[in-house]
Design goal:
single chain; 432 residues; alpha+beta; five-stranded antiparallel sheet; globular
Length: 432
């Protein structure tokens, strides 16, 4: 029994058995093995979810051997990739083909299957999450049957499985709509939070990709505006020394040192937060899209994120700013705000509404429960939907009220996995 932990160290389990299938037939055999034992089985990726969505003490599927692009058409941009491929590997292989994902989040450690199954997203008012770039899926169902689904083939399974929480079957391959590689122009600068919030709606629509970070206790936000350059543009990336200083020294080493000091002496967190906000500096550069989207994260943290109606951002941030100074334990990490377009995926956090994503974080090892619970209540008052891979305490009845197609998802689940073979304690809570 090998002990497995997630990236943040918030989940640790010792599965009874770990399967490492190399192809679809071996995935089906592993599912059959679990059924023969009367056990449940969960596929796991890179462990970057903060929740226990991938955890199991029964049978686990380690899909790292199912990696790489299996087919690609550079003319149409249609690419099929094996489910265990990390986004880092996928970006590298797409780049070699002259292709790119339309949008990405800022972490590339996740597998493609885990990223779409939990609703991973980037930012862009006219763009959806990663699952909206999916053209087709291949799964192994609870009875060992491999199936395909798309908008034309098994459309209800497709509507459910694009953000399927691993509850409908084991994803073995994902077909994506990609596009020719492109260059992004990045502008990052500190701005007073009051001004950012006042112009939020306009800024979100004016930029291809817009987001900001607010450091609690500080006046400023770090605002990021990323926009496409014309095809054929040459990248002008940050110089090697500036990149090293900005990312390795400042954002990882120095920030990590401040967090560790604040964890040891909590009264230092508030002045450190003000200092971090005051020392934010501007930078401007351009590079291939995946190099701009993705940020290296070596300082570990825990996170909770809710998608709220986009027009509610000001209200939620106002209440959050009033909350933070009243907490018993100070907050060492910034708040992140992003945007996404409405989509039609049943358990997508952006289903049916243009959304803003507000994420709160805390440095690993510092108290977070009071903060996260209070934030969940603030977001819940405006109908906030929790990110499936980030920390929250909602159950099925609460989630049903926030997802119009929740019962449709459960109906499809009952059809393809009547014994809940792919369940675990997390799914028992959020799906009932």
């Amino acid at each position: 029994m090998t002990r497995w932990t997630n990236w943040a160290g918030t989940v640790a389990v010792s599965p009874k058995r770990v399967h490492t299938p190399r192809d679809v037939e071996e995935v089906a055999a592993a599912v059959g093995s679990a059924a023969s034992d009367g056990a449940r089985v969960r596929a796991r990726g890179s462990g970057h979810s903060f929740t226990a969505i991938a955890a199991t003490e029964e049978h686990a599927l380690e899909l790292s051997a199912l990696s790489g692009i299996s087919s690609a058409d550079p003319e149409t941009g249609i690419v099929t990739v094996r489910a265990g491929t990390t986004l880092r590997t996928l970006n590298r292989e797409l780049d070699a083909l002259g292709l790119a994902m339309t949008n990405l989040g800022d972490i590339d450690a996740q597998t493609i299957a885990g990223a779409i199954s939990t609703g991973t997203h980037g930012t862009g008012a006219r763009l959806g999450g990663l699952a909206t770039q999916v053209a087709g899926l291949e799964l192994v169902l609870a009875d060992g049957t491999p199936v395909r689904c798309s908008a034309e083939e098994n459309p209800e399974l497709f509507a459910a499985a694009r953000v399927g929480l691993g509850a409908l079957g084991v994803l073995t391959a994902v077909t994506l709509r990609c596009e020719p590689a492109f260059v992004l122009h990045a502008r990052e600068r500190p701005e007073p939070l009051e001004e950012v919030l006042a112009g939020f709606a306009e800024s979100a629509l004016a930029e291809d990709h817009f987001e900001f970070y607010w450091f609690p206790y500080g006046r400023n936000a770090l605002v990021k505006r990323n926009n496409r350059l014309p095809r054929g543009s040459s990248p002008e990336p940050l110089g090697r020394i500036k990149s090293f200083v900005d990312y390795e020294v400042t954002e990882n080493f120095a920030f990590g040192a401040l967090c560790r000091a604040g964890r040891a002496i909590p009264r230092l967190v508030t002045p450190f937060g003000r200092l971090s906000s005051a020392l934010l500096s501007p930078r401007e550069y351009s590079d291939y899209s995946h190099k701009v989207f993705v940020t290296k994260r070596s300082v570990r943290f825990v996170e909770s994120e809710f998608a709220v109606p986009r027009e509610s951002v000001g209200e939620v941030l106002t209440e959050l700013r009033e909350l933070v100074p009243k907490l018993e334990s100070p907050v060492a990490f910034p708040v992140e705000v992003r945007v996404a377009a409405a989509d039609d995926i049943w358990l997508s956090t952006a289903y049916g509404r243009d959304s803003a994503y507000i994420a709160v974080h805390q440095f690993l090892g510092m108290p977070y429960r009071e903060y996260f619970a209070a934030f969940a209540a603030i977001a819940g008052a405006v109908g906030g939907r929790p990110h499936w891979g980030k920390m929250h305490e909602l159950d099925a009845e609460q989630l049903r009220a926030r997802y119009p197609r929740f019962d449709d998802f459960l109906r499809v689940r009952k059809e393809v996995d009547p014994e809940k073979r792919f369940g675990n304690p997390y799914l028992d809570r959020v799906l009932g």
